[in-house]
Design brief:
The chain is an all-alpha fold. The protein has 2 domains: 36 residues, no CATH class; 53 residues. Helix content is 45%, strand content 0%. The chain contains 4 helices and no strands. Helix 3 crosses helix 4.
């Protein structure tokens, strides 16, 4: 197992893989399996990053149109639309 600079073990917990929540043994069982991605996953990660920026900065997603984000992806209108939907949902929640 890899060690971090703080001498702590680094576990490969993929955010979209909830199996480690239900089965802690799956962490060890998945060690050594390549962490693969695809275009849809990369796009989803970029949109999540855009939405997070918007929520933290209080800036509308369309303000990031044309700017580079995750892995150099350029924010386009489709990304803005999806992120805006999520940001509006989050902002409408109580608390």
């Amino acid at each position: 197992m890899e060690q971090s600079t703080f001498d702590l073990p680094i576990y490969r917990l993929r955010p979209s893989n909830k199996s480690w929540l239900l089965c802690p043994g799956s962490i060890q069982a998945s060690e050594g399996i390549p962490d693969e991605t695809n275009d849809a996953a990369e796009l989803g990660t970029a949109i999540h990053e855009l939405a997070e920026l918007c929520l933290k900065q209080g800036i509308a997603p369309e303000e990031y149109l044309g700017y580079p984000i995750y892995n150099g992806m350029i924010v386009d209108e489709d990304m803005v639309e999806v992120a805006a939907y999520y940001v509006d949902f989050c902002n409408g929640q109580p608390g």
